[in-house]
Specification:
The protein is an all-alpha fold. The chain has helices at about 5-20, 20-45. The termini are far apart.
């Protein structure tokens, strides 16, 4: 997954809020939430190999 994607969507949310496009900002916010959760699920499935 591209790590710049959440930041790009967040920028789109900010721009939509500034320009007053309420519906677009909600849609982009939901997309940001989904992308963030999917990224989290993808990265937390690997166990940590720690040795102390």
């Amino acid at each position: 997954m591209f790590m710049f994607l959440p930041f790009l969507i967040a920028l789109g949310v900010i721009l939509a809020v500034i320009t007053g496009k309420e519906k677009t900002s909600y849609i982009l916010w939901a997309a940001l939430l989904i992308v963030t959760i999917l990224s989290f699920i993808h990265h937390v499935t690997d166990p940590l190999s720690l040795s102390f």
